[in-house]
Design goal:
single chain; 121 residues; mainly beta; Immunoglobulin-like; six-stranded mixed sheet; six-stranded antiparallel sheet
């Protein structure tokens, strides 16, 4: 998947994603209230997490549907490449999602979402 291009200082776009369990070859069922979905945001090539935040379930999480809404200062960073990794928690257990779809198309998936943040105009 190509990097998503955003401008430094922006607050959007929100992203609608579908989480896919490639081990079980199906979209994940996130409808249990015990399942919480989170994201980690970091500069590409770094191990330092800049932000961690929760995602909202769309349609109660049926079919793996979630929405990533950025905290207000997420893109207040230097221009460059950044990554987002999605993970879930359920009853004290953590699972890193291993495939994401933005459009539902088979060729539109990845294991890490990549962003290219460009400087302000």
């Amino acid at each position: 998947m190509d990097p998503i291009v955003v401008h430094a200082g922006d607050d959007l776009p929100n992203l609608y994603l579908r989480l896919y369990d490639q081990d079980n070859t199906e979209y994940m069922d996130l409808t249990s209230a015990a399942v919480q979905v989170y994201a980690k945001f970091r500069r590409k090539g770094s191990s330092t997490v800049l932000q961690s935040f929760g995602l909202s379930k769309v349609a109660l999480g049926a079919g793996g549907r979630v929405m990533l809404t950025w905290p207000d200062d997420s893109f207040d960073v230097d221009a460059g490449r950044y990554e987002v990794e999605i993970y879930l928690t359920c009853n004290g257990k953590v699972w890193t999602a291993n495939k994401y779809y933005m459009s539902g198309e088979a060729n539109d998936s990845d294991t890490v979402l990549e962003f290219k943040i460009v400087g302000d105009f």
